[in-house]
């Protein structure tokens, strides 16, 4: 199932900005007003899980509105699918409660510096990261059994490690405004899945993050 990953395809770099959200349109709208300038020529796509009032612009912008909360993993997958369907090679995924403070030119520079990287992450807990569409397809997409949040990032990271994908962490993606768990602050019920998802992760990989034992999910047992 898992094998060494093939190097990146040589094709022009095209990225989209993607942001999942559920209940912090107040913070998102503040940053979108800035992103509309920072990423004027770059498509921005929102996955709105909370049917919120979100500001818009008349070009390079789309809001996906699922009927119910998809959770983080499925929202990320939906946004990656949108990018793939629109010819993007990379996705800059952002939390709705941070402000990146970088321009599209600066992001293009990051992509040129690390053009052989499949995954480029900030040091701020997956609040801002870049993932190639190719890598997302290869590692098997984000695990939608992990719902609504917690451990979907650990799971994807471990699968990328198993495939020996090229990954780097950089302060160049650190948001200039970083807030943590603001959706949970507004709705504490979103925090209730932590221990359930931790148990699932341990069942899947034989241990918690950084202490995994299995190289294939559930050690090859049907689940």
From TrEMBL:
Keywords linked to the UniProt accession: Transferase
One Gene Ontology molecular-function label: transferase activity
Glycosyltransferase 2-like domain mapped to chain residues: 17-102
Keyword Transferase in annotation: yes
InterPro entries linked to this entry: Glyco_trans_2-like, Nucleotide-diphossugar_trans
Organism: Flavobacterium lacus
UniProt KW Transferase keyword: yes
Protein name listed in UniProt: Glycosyl transferase family 2
């Amino acid at each position: 199932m898992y094998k060494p990953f093939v190097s990146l395809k040589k094709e022009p770099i095209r990225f989209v900005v993607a942001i999942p959200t559920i209940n912090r349109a107040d913070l998102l709208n503040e940053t979108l007003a800035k992103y509309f300038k920072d990423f004027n020529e770059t498509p921005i796509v929102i996955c709105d899980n909370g049917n919120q009032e979100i500001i818009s612009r008349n070009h390079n912008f789309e809001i996906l509105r699922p009927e119910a909360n998809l959770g983080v993993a499925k929202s990320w997958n939906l946004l990656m699918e949108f990018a793939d369907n629109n010819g993007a090679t990379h996705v800059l995924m952002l939390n709705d409660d941070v402000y990146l403070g970088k321009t599209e030119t600066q992001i293009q520079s990051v992509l040129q510096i690390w053009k052989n990287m499949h995954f480029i992450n900030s040091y701020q807990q997956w609040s801002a990261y870049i993932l190639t569409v190719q890598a997302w397809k290869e590692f098997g997409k984000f695990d939608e059994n992990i719902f609504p949040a917690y451990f979907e990032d650990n799971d994807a990271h471990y699968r990328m490690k198993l495939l020996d994908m090229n990954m780097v962490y950089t302060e160049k993606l650190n948001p200039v405004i970083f807030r943590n768990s603001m959706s949970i602050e507004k709705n504490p019920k979103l925090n209730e899945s932590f221990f359930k998802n931790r148990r699932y992760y341990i069942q899947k990989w034989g241990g918690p993050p950084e202490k995994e034992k299995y190289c294939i999910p559930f050690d090859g047992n049907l689940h």
